[in-house]
Amino acid sequence: MEPEQSTITVRWMAGGEHIQDLGRRSRAASRRLATASTAQKDAALLAAAEILLERAPEILAANEADCEAAATDGMEPGPLDRLRLDPQRLDAMAAGIRRVADLSDPVGEVLEGWRRPNGLEIQRIRVPLGVVAIIYENRPNVTSDAASLCLKSGNAALLRGSGTALASNRAIASAIRAGITKSGLPEDGVQLVDDVSHESAVAMMQLTDYVDCLIPRGGAALVQAMREHATVPVVIDGDGNCHVYVDASADLVEAVDLVLNAKTQRPGVCNAAESLLVHRAVADEFLPRVGAALVESGVELVGDADARSRFEMGVATDDDFAREYLDLKMSVAVVESIDAAIEHVNRYSSGHTEMIATRDLEAARRFTHEVDSGTVIVNASTRFTDGERFGFGAEIGISTQKLHARGPMGLRELTTSKYLVWGDGQVV
Amino acid sequence: MEPEQSTITVRWMAGGEHIQDLGRRSRAASRRLATASTAQKDAALLAAAEILLERAPEILAANEADCEAAATDGMEPGPLDRLRLDPQRLDAMAAGIRRVADLSDPVGEVLEGWRRPNGLEIQRIRVPLGVVAIIYENRPNVTSDAASLCLKSGNAALLRGSGTALASNRAIASAIRAGITKSGLPEDGVQLVDDVSHESAVAMMQLTDYVDCLIPRGGAALVQAMREHATVPVVIDGDGNCHVYVDASADLVEAVDLVLNAKTQRPGVCNAAESLLVHRAVADEFLPRVGAALVESGVELVGDADARSRFEMGVATDDDFAREYLDLKMSVAVVESIDAAIEHVNRYSSGHTEMIATRDLEAARRFTHEVDSGTVIVNASTRFTDGERFGFGAEIGISTQKLHARGPMGLRELTTSKYLVWGDGQVV
């Protein structure tokens, strides 16, 4: 099948060339943005918000076209709702950009500084990463969120949303670029990859000359593709197989509320709880109570033999304990001890968020120290793991890796540092 | 060629299985090390230093065997010297371990903390990365340096040196493991990969279930192999194409000393200067002076036409400007302005260290802000970019990437952070 293969190669090269060109332009813009003043960057953001609202009719029309095409293609109501914009959602988008302008600029912060015995003065200062690439799915508001956070932190944003949202994203990115131009900064500070082929995604993951950090915001398939193809530095916004452990000493009334909130308040998000562990000492009392409350809220339960003997539920397989349902379903296990709870969590967790309900100081200390996850919560819902709820003012994602950033990521996580050394002729 | 292929597959699987097993054991050990007290870790380090000296005869005999085999294989004198141990070098190794024990423990540091309006208390604390893998070349002292830094920071170390140093590394790792056991910590806290095949290196680069951070310490070929094969998180200890820029306002007498020191004090290391940029305004005066001094020190110069017209030297190609010579050779260019100098540096640099010689505040400010490298130095030798010279007490490498760590890496860069959230029943 020679001809077919060479056709693919040619298409790939063309896609790769286009992405290389976008990368070059992002890099050039990033040099300007890195030294832009806070006032300039804020002016660009405010102008972008204004133009976004001025262009509401065009943006909503583009979005309407995206939604119609998606509906014709049989998109489910849930994703279709996430794709859809209306005047209120556009207002919220503009308000989000203005809120980012109000956040303090992380760039230029002196993180530390000291003087060496030979008189050298060393400072570590916060600087932008450079070019931040973000691959995301069909919510068009990510385009403005990601662009504004990158801009505020002095980075050039190279954005790639889904094909289903392409017309919407083009209209939004164009408005933001117009805002940037108006403030005198380079419009290539925000670029949208409009080739939404698989090849272009892979080319983006391998733009080692131009991309300083790639953040995938999507499901397991995207993360898997990153693992296979990415050669640029990556921060994974990963899945959340979050656990709630109800300790022997827990306040069981409070624990029912915590479990219910963690599981049902918004089951489709990464910080919702997926798995419930109950200490054997309180399992007889707690499981029937929490089980009834969960079932009443529409949750399907699956458990191990010890859990099933205390409340009627389906059988949980090993796969169930490892699964992020993102739905009204929860796996349940009874554990012998806090050691068994910690071991279970460290075995099955995705490292996002785990919670302990306890009144015992030693249990709280052990759980927080020995559980190897980005966020460990004592006596509060797992749903608090979130940039806004942490007080960061905005969030670009939640890292489940350990390098660079771990947990909710705000503006600060879009920066790196640089050492400045000041001397007067010192030699080695 | 079916049979041959399947043989390769079987060998690969066997290598892969072995590495997977090492990974599992490192992970298990890392759980214990993460909660070990500073006193326990220091006791392990001091015991390791003691046993290393007790076993000097065995270690030196093993090293002698390595050196003989390497000499027979035709190893060059330089690498052979780096491979060789003697009683003094073994003493230095033990002293290095004791110095690491004296450093303060980074684990447990509360990096920040605040209270939210709803009463939630959030803390970000410093914790070990977990399992740190290090691939390095033929210097056996890296085995003890890397092991002790990982141990002190609460990480399990998975080490892979070169095949030429295998007997030496086995003897050193065995002594350190004995020290760890003596202190009651798990000996698998330090493991040496004794399969030095290419396959085992690739398997190590893909141990995603067990390795939290892989640090390659080696040349361009190793870095390239990492880029191709690594699926685990990586911190690149990369090459240093370091620049010295002599500005129009520089103190030219001081600048000659700085250039000489940066180039010739130890030309084979990553923080030695490789390229000299001279502002046109001082080129007529400075180039003959610095050229004569460099040539007298045995440096071969290659330059652009403007440099060659002022001092006799060879022709520098584009490749020369991009090259890290690690030798007594230097590329030279004359630049029109500080803008041209910054552009040249950002184009050719590997992002390690750049220096400006200047008396002009505005030039210093622009160079430090606009040059996109991990360390930017004003009026001091590039050779200062080093963990010891920065005052970190030890160094695991120098990162040329922007994610996680940038510049010299000490104990702190072997850690990550974790959010702890303390509540009393808060729900969303």
Question: How would you sum up this structure, described in words?
Answer:
- The structure is a homodimer of 428-residue chains.
- Chain A has helices at residues 2-34, 38-54, 56-72, 77-83, 87-102, 141-152, 166-182, 198-205, 220-229, 252-264, 280-296, 305-308, 318-322, 338-348, 361-370, 387-390, and strands spanning 110-115, 121-128, 131-135, 156-160, 190-192, 213-216, 242-246, 273-279, 300-303, 314-315, 329-335, 353-357, 375-380, 397-399, 407-409, 415-426.
- The termini of chain A are far apart.
- Chain A contains 16 helices and 16 strands.
- At the A-B interface, helix 10, helix 15, strand 13 and strand 16 of A face helix 10, helix 15, strand 13 and strand 16 of B.
- Strand 16 (415-426) of chain A pairs parallel with strand 13 (375-380) of chain B.
Can you tell me the CATH class of the largest domain in chain A?
Answer: Alpha Beta
- Outline of chain A, from the CA principal axes? globular
Using a beta-carbon cutoff below 8 angstroms, give the protein chain pair with the largest interface and the number of residues from each chain.
A-B, 65 and 64 residues
Instruction: Tell how many strands the DSSP assignment of chain A holds.
Output: 16
Distance between the termini of chain A: 63 Å
Biggest sheet of chain A: strands, sense, closure?
7 strands, parallel
Oligomer: homodimer
Structural class of chain A: alpha/beta
**What's the architecture of the largest domain in chain A, going by CATH?**
3-Layer(aba) Sandwich
Which percent bin holds the helix content of chain A? 40-55%
- Supply the CATH superfamily name of the largest domain in chain A: Aldehyde Dehydrogenase, Chain A, domain 1
- CATH topology title of the largest domain in chain A: Aldehyde Dehydrogenase, Chain A, domain 1
Strand percentage of chain A lies at 15-25%
Rg value of chain A: 24 Å
Low-confidence stretches of chain A: 1-13
Q: What strand line-up does the widest sheet of chain A have?
A: 10-9-11-8-7-12-13
Tally of individual helices of chain A: 16
**Overall mean pLDDT score of chain A?**
94
Q: What is the domain tally of chain A?
A: 2
